[in-house]
Amino acid sequence: MNPPYAIFVTSLGGPEVLQAGPIDMPVAGPGQVVIEHSAIAVNYVDIYLRAGQPHGHNPEPPFVPGISAVGRVLEVGAGVSDLQVGDRITYANAGVGCYCTHVAIPADRAVKVPAALDDIRVAAGLLRALTAQYLLKQMRPMAAGETVLVHAAAGGVGQLLVQWAKRLGLKVIATVGSDAKVITAHELGADAVINYRTQDFVAEVARITGGEGVSVVYDSVGHDTFTGSLACLAPKGLAINYGTASGHVENFSLQTLHARSLWVCRPTLRTYIAKRADLLAMCEEVFALLADKTIRLDIAALLPLLRAGKAHSLLESRSTQGAIVLLPATS
């Protein structure tokens, strides 16, 4: 076994502040399990916290980033009865950083991984699929035939949103940032695709919908798209800002929503999986989705954990298609 180590955010700043350092082998306290990681997800929230962008929780450096990973149980603490050494598990939002080789987490945050799923697909897809699940199935009842707009449709969450929305019978308009991603979004099943770098997506949505607008906008971009997202909505439409890849949405007048009775929401996955019963129910649905090999889940990069800074640079460039996964066992 290699000596345990972690990647630390040594100060707030760019990818260069991510530095490796040794850690003590964790010990399982009451109600905890110790996990040896095999695959670690890279998510935008990792960048928000590293850069000090205001979020729901902003730890002070030095801290270990990361919120979702896959691994095997090495040790079980007192009071834990439903997990045992050797179990393959995954977790999200366990209250610990996961850019590390080993970690102790609360056992009630760990979910056993079905044998049909490999570690990398789970690491790449868990958080994204959980996000897509609550966005599509818990935020607003949607009827087959309704039209939705998905920003960043070729990205990690966007890919799953497009495919799942089509399975629910929705009409999907997708926006992407390059001609190559236009092809990807069409392959995923989007009914119409807009390159927002070369086209006015508001005008295009109006043209595609005959001026009616869309029922829901799924917006993970934030600053650069949100005002336009509101303009794309039909009366009583809902704009969901679930990410801020281009920066926070600036203050806007509430009166902007008045004329068409619009709705706005800024949700977070953490609240939807806070109760273990909800976490398990959502994971059951998500595991079934990920086990379906017809669901496309692009892996943009597999990198050694020691190259976490490179992973952040790739994700921040917004040039990647799909997920980035860090591998602790690779040097």
Topology:
Elements lengths: L4 E5 L8 E5 L9 E11 L1 H8 L16 E9 L11 E5 L9 E5 L4 E2 L6 H19 L9 E4 L5 H12 L3 E6 L2 H10 L3 E4 L5 H8 L5 E6 L6 H6 L1 E9 L21 E3 L3 H4 L3 H16 L7 E6 L3 H9 L6 E5 L4
Helix pairs in contact: 2-3, 2-8
> How many strands, which pairing sense, and closed or not: the largest β-sheet?
7 strands, mixed
Q: Multimeric state of these chains? A: single chain
Beginning-to-end CA distance, first to last residue? 14 Å
The CATH superfamily of the largest domain is identified as Medium-chain alcohol dehydrogenases, catalytic domain
CATH topology of the largest domain: Quinone Oxidoreductase, Chain A, domain 1
The residue fraction in helices comes out at: 25-40%
Regions with pLDDT < 50 over 5+ consecutive residues? none
Specify the number of helices.
Answer: 9
What percent strand?
25-35%
**How much is the radius of gyration in Å?**
20 Å
According to CATH, what is the class of the largest domain?
Answer: Alpha Beta
What is the annotated CATH architecture of the largest domain?
Answer: Alpha-Beta Complex
Number of strands: 15
Mean pLDDT: 94
Number of domains: 2
Structural class: alpha/beta
So what's the overall shape?
A: globular
How would you spell out the order of helices and strands? EEEHEEEEHEHEHEHEHEEHHEHE
